Amino acid sequence: MNFLNKNTFKLLGKSLATMFLVLIYSCSENETQTVTTMNNLVWEDDFNNAGSVDATKWSFDIGKGSNGWGNNELQYYTNRSENVQVKDGMLHITAFKESYLGSAYTSGRILTKEIYDQKYGRFEARIKLPWGKGLWPAFWLLGSDIDTVGWPNCGEIDVMEYVGQAPTVTHGSIHGPNYFGGDAITKSYTLLNDRFDTDFHVFGIEWGENYINYYVDDVLYNQITPSDLPEGSKWVFNDRSFFIILNLAVGGSFVGAPNSETQFPQTMIVDYVKAYK
Amino acid sequence: MKKNKFNNLINIAFLGILTFTISSCEREISQDAELTGYPTNGDVFIDAFSGGLEYYPYQGSKQTAFSVDTETKYEGRASMRFDVPNFGDPDGAFAGAIFRDENGGRDLTGYDALTFWAKSSKAATINDIGFGQDFGENKFQVSKQGLRLTTNWVKYTIPIPMASKLTKESGLMWFAEGPEGGDGYSFWIDELKFEKLGTVAQLRPAIQNGEHIITDSFIGVNVKVAGLVQTYNLGSGIDQIIAVAPNYFQFTSSDSSVATVSESGSVEVISEGTAVITATLGDLAALGSLTINSRGYFVFPAKPTRDSSKVISIFSDYYTNTPVDFYNGYWEPYQTTLSADFNVSGDNILNYTNFNFVGIQFANPVVDATQKANLHFDLYIPGVVPSNFDFLVTIVDFGPDQASGGGDDTRKQLFVRKSASIVANAWMPIEFSLASTARGSVGQIIFENINFSTLRNIYLDNIYFYE
User: Which residue among B199, B233, B237 places its CB closest to the CB of A193?
Assistant: First the structure.
């Protein structure tokens, strides 16, 4: 099952750990690749209880944030059931085009800050993404000490970022001091003969000391290590816990504004979020 | 070898074999026999014609517009080259053809798009390109209208609206393109094939181009559901709209005692009342609708009685019409008028909707109305006559050059003012004398709202000049 073909390997970054280089050299068409190794489930939300999200697991970010949550995003995040709702065994985060408290769009953003965080481990979610220009859903982690050390010193791990105008591409990134924003360490993964908005896909990372592995479904597509950082930069992922965020942004510097072709409402549907050690 | 032979034969002899098998029930179909009747080959032109493919240029098109080019190609050994003629080319006014499978068709149910690489000698826009045209019923025709080409090779995708319909499609590609600004040019197509991309998604079918159209109608009227399109989001994230044949849709009438709708989207009004025509494509409801407000029996205009020898007819079912270039010039950018012409029991009626102005042109040849110094037409205003009704008819004489423009055109304005005799829901015969009008080379009649008249919907019939 955990199959990775040679072509995908060719895409891998130049500075992979020795472990992976060995794998490349021994790779044949039929060889299985070990995508995940951490299988001790320690936290999860299966979104099985209809209604609002489980308050023992999630809180809401509400409002427009500062400068559109630092990204010039256009939406107002609410905790209304229209924007964030659990139904049919799934979390639905829905963006609407509507005038609301000074914003032209509404949407949702939930997080486990001060409820659950974890250092190292495997973080995974199964998600069906929205589509259309200007939609920017994400499944990501922030360092729990953000309020004391600030961003980007706290570190950020983007398990999945996606823009609605590129429905076959997901991006996996890290941000930290001296490598953030447009200079984040990132890699994109393109689905072959498929899209992220027509069915569910699994997005995950496995994170340990001095490495973060990125996978989509059964394909490991990247590993980031301290050697990928700009010279003299600090690896901030060995010394703190991170919490989980799920959101659907509309507009912003990364994605651009929606256009007349963008269909609203748009929903990011999450089947589950799991954390393993 | 045996199996291959069978596959070749099966196209022609499938039914025969099946009948034979049934009539000799003891025998089972050999294990070598595959009941998939038609080849699933998706290749149309990779480096040469795929098996069974033939080129059929349209009548009136430049027959030599197509050639196989071994010099310019995207990949492999050859591409398809199309030379669009210049305006006035004696060999043909445009390039256009169908490429048809002569072996009875292909099973394309496993694909989701026709794809190809293309480039052109200059940036240009192909009027129509698609598949499903077979010079037969064209049942599953698809067209991308206005496909923009560049001088670089670009891959294009024309999605299949509903692949399950294409079990034996022989129309593998068709196109029609004329000169651009009078000039011809060349374009090349390579690696033309049906593919399963998996990235064509977010289908949004529509009828009436997604609008909710309301139209007045009458018993006996036949109208076609129009504006049949399907919008897709391609893997590139770009929305693509294609025009699709009615047979991909399933049409429904909300009240089939008022109006029925056929498989091909043909609506027949059968009684007074209201019926809403909607459609689905597969599991998806099509955006848009056509509401028929049937006013009951149609009142026909009075049958013309003038002798045909004393008439030059522009539009009438009672006389032979002079050649007409168009009944609606769709003059950009200010014209809003659309045409919704209909036919009641064999009588054709011009119906102008969203009316502001519209021109009828008959310049090939122009009309010599020297001996026919009068104009007649029948006007019908459905609904109500707007309080600010003010209607202008302009007769344009093209002058000695017999062509529009050239500094010798003259125009005669004829006014239909609001009066007690202008009524709604009845035919009004309108007569004008052209005695003081230049009329030796009449080329156009223009109907127009003036002084902000809000008349939006009119019927016209029996437009003619007479002695």
Answer: B199
